[in-house]
Amino acid sequence: MAKLYFHYSTMNAGKSTILLQAAHNYRERGMEIFMVTAQLDDRAGPGRIESRIGIGADAAVFGAKDDLCAMVTSRMAQGPCACVFIDEAQFLTTDQVWQLARVVDDLKVPVMCYGLRVDFRGQLFPGSAALLALADDLREVRTICHCGKKATMVVRLGPDGKALHEGVQVQIGGNETYVSLCRRHWRVSMGDARA
Predict the structure, then answer these.
(1) Which fold does the domain 4-142 belong to in CATH?
(2) CA distances from 99 to 19, 47, 104 (A)
(3) pTM for this one?
(4) Domain ranges of the chain
(5) 3-state secondary structure of 178
(6) Which residues of 12-47 are buried (b: 16+ CB within 10 A; e: fewer)?
(7) How confident is the model at residue 18 (pLDDT cuts 50, 70, 90)?
C-alpha cells in the first residue's frame, strides 16, 4: 500500500544520505524511481542531490509553481515508477504536499519526502507543516548537539559567528551557516537561557 512519508530532522543529520541509500535499494532490485529536489537549493549543482559524505545523484527539480502530481504523472508515462523521492521537502508549498498526497492516493505510488522540520527561528516551514499534518508516516532522522543530546533545532550564524535572531526564512547554506543544537542550547544561543 502506497504511503506519504516525511523523514525530518535538522541540518546535517544525513537526510540526503538516507534518501540516496533508499533510492539505491530500489534500483538494485530493478525498480525504477523518480527523484526530485528543490530548484531553490543548487549547492550541489542544478538538479543534483548530494550528501556531505560524497554520494550523489541527478534529479528533476521543482519550483514553487510546479504541479508535482503532474510531474509524477508525466514521469509514469515514460515507464513504471516504484517510488518518488523528494529532497529538501521543507521548500514544498502546502498545495504541493496535497499534490503528493494525490500521487499516493490516486496513482498508488509511495512518496518519500526528506527535509527540515523548523527554521533557525524555531518556526515550521510551510511544506514541513503540511507534511506533518498529511503524511501517513513520520520518521525523525536523529542527529546530536555538541552536548550529546538529540538536536532538534538549528541556528543560523552571521558573519561574526553569532546566532542570528531574525532574517528571511530561507537562506541556502551548509556547515558554514547553520549549526544543529538541542532545544536548550538553541535557547542559549538565542539569548533565552543561560549557559
Answers:
(1) Rossmann fold (3.40.50)
(2) 20, 20, 9
(3) 0.87
(4) 4-142
(5) strand
(6) ebbbbbbbbebbeebeeeeeebbbbbbbebeebeee
(7) very high
CA dist 95 → 47, 57, 89, 104 (Å):
22, 26, 13, 15
Mean pLDDT of 112-137: 93
**What is the identity of the amino acid at 6?**
F
User: Residue 145: is its pLDDT beyond 80?
Assistant: yes
Does residue 7 surpass a pLDDT of 70?
yes
Active site residues: 88
Amino acid at 43: R
SS3 for 131-151, per residue? Answer: HHHHCCEEEECCCECCCCCEC
- Count of residues making up the chain: 195
| Structure-block grid coordinates of residue 121 | 527561528
pLDDT at 195 (0 to 100): 57
> If residue 94 lies in a helix (H) or strand (E), which one and from where to where?
helix 94-107
* Strand, coil or helix: 8: strand
The H or E element spanning position 175 is none
Looking at the DSSP assignment, which residues form a beta bridge with residue 35? 85
Amino acid in position 73 = T
Rg (CA), the chain: 17
